[in-house]
Amino acid sequence: MNARFAVFIAVVATVLSLSAFYVGVRFVSWSEWAGRHEAIVWFTLAIFVALQFLGPILYRSLPKHVNWLFVVHWVIYTSLGVFASMFLYIVAADVVAGLFSFVFPTERVIEIESLAVAAMVLTTAVVGSITVALGPRVYRVEIPLAGLPAAFDGFRIVQLSDLHIGPTLGRRYAQRCVRIANALDADVIALTGDFVDGSVAQLKSAAAPLKELQARQGVYFVTGNHEYYWDGPAWVEEFRRLGARPLLNEHVVLRKDGGEIVLAGVTDYSAGRIAPGHRFDPMRAAQGAPAQALKILLAHHPKSYVAAQQAGFDLQLSGHTHGGQFFPFSIFVHLFERYYKGLYRIGKLWLYVNRGTGYWGPPLRFGVPSEISVITLKRAG
């Protein structure tokens, strides 16, 4: 274990433990039953914290996808999502209760606060789980582009991003996504990173359905940050074997009825820190492309837009943010990502950010359904 990773684990353990302590204190103060059985409250929270470290250990030490491990991971990651929401709901409720304590009796405020938190936590858990079970929605958007050749008017790019095949999401979900994507009559299918959370050996079978993706002018893949946590170069070769063409700071020229456009792809924004040979480089991706051709960039991280503008791209397709994935995180994501879901116009560049085709961590999607995007190119004007 290197020093940086040890510091990371220590910080996570401290934050998680302090959060659990805060939740425990509030439970004991709210509930007469919890006040009489404090030992059960603290034991339950201690088990919860321990499980959050046991989950990753089990995943790495028992890499085979077997049913009982899926159940264990589902319980662990769902509890993490429910706890995270609970913590934020309690903090928000405490702030609101503090304002109303000057107006209403303290007992009444505590009663309303505890009921409100319980209702929101239950809603998040139930609706969030159901939304995941329903699978990805199809989001359709038309983007007007100046300089788009007439032959490409109506050209369809189907985008999948952030599938995160891993502890709780496997082959069956991947098959469902492939069926949906193949039914969308794509000219191109774009895979914009973070498709896996595990090694090639561990997830080869679960990712195998991706080989069935079909589009008239091909399937293209760019790396996200999570591929590099599990040997990015190995995953690049595996996606190549699955029939997707990796675009590692390079481009292809797509031609149709005498017209042509450029489709380029870059490695993840942060890839150079883990795999120096995969350093993010949009300029290199555009190098040698036809000067007057319209240029589209596949880039996992929305923040790539600055370099994309400098390299002369007209449209960027990204993912990474998950749109916040579930409330209340969906209202905070904007504090960290200026462009976090949907379509934006930034100067001359169009940016579309996919909300994520799967999910990461907790199997919850509350207020932010998973997404398969259909990007239809239209001639401006």
Short description:
It contains 12 helices and 12 strands. It is of the alpha/beta class. The model has no long low-confidence stretch (mean pLDDT 92).
Molecular structure report:
- The chain has helices at residues 3-30, 32-36, 38-61, 67-100, 106-134, 171-182, 200-207, 225-229, 232-241, 282-286, 305-310, 329-332, and strands at residues 137-145, 156-160, 188-192, 219-222, 245-246, 250-256, 259-265, 294-298, 315-318, 342-346, 349-353, 371-379.
- It is an alpha/beta fold and 381 residues long.
- The protein folds into 2 domains: 3-133, no CATH class; 136-379, Metallo-dependent phosphatases (Purple Acid Phosphatase, chain A, domain 2), CATH 3.60.21.
- The strands form 2 sheets. It has a 6-stranded mixed β-sheet with strand order 1-12-2-3-4-5, with helices on one face. Strands 6-7-8-9-11-10 form a 6-stranded mixed β-sheet.
- A hairpin with a 2-residue loop joins strand 6 and strand 7 (259-265).
- Helix 3 (38-61) crosses helix 4 (67-100) and helix 4 packs antiparallel against helix 5 (106-134).
- The longest helix is centred in the first third of the chain and has 34 residues, at 67-100.
Q: Do you know the CATH architecture of the largest domain?
A: 4-Layer Sandwich
For this structure, what is the CATH class of the largest domain? Alpha Beta
Helix content: 40-55%
Q: Based on helices, strands and strand pairing, what is the structural class?
A: alpha/beta
Count structural domains. 2
The low-pLDDT segments are none
Mean pLDDT reading: 92
CA radius of gyration is 23 Å
Q: In DSSP terms, counting alpha (H) and pi (I) runs of 4 or more, how many helices? A: 12
Report the count of strand segments.
Answer: 12
Distance from first to last alpha carbon: 58 Å
Strand arrangement within the widest β-sheet reads 1-12-2-3-4-5
CATH fold-level label of the largest domain: Purple Acid Phosphatase, chain A, domain 2
Give the CATH superfamily of the largest domain: Metallo-dependent phosphatases
Overall geometry: globular
Query: What is the N-to-C succession of helices and strands?
Result: HHHHHEEHEHEHHEEEHEHEHEEE
Biggest pleated-sheet summary: 6 strands, mixed
Strand % is 15-25%
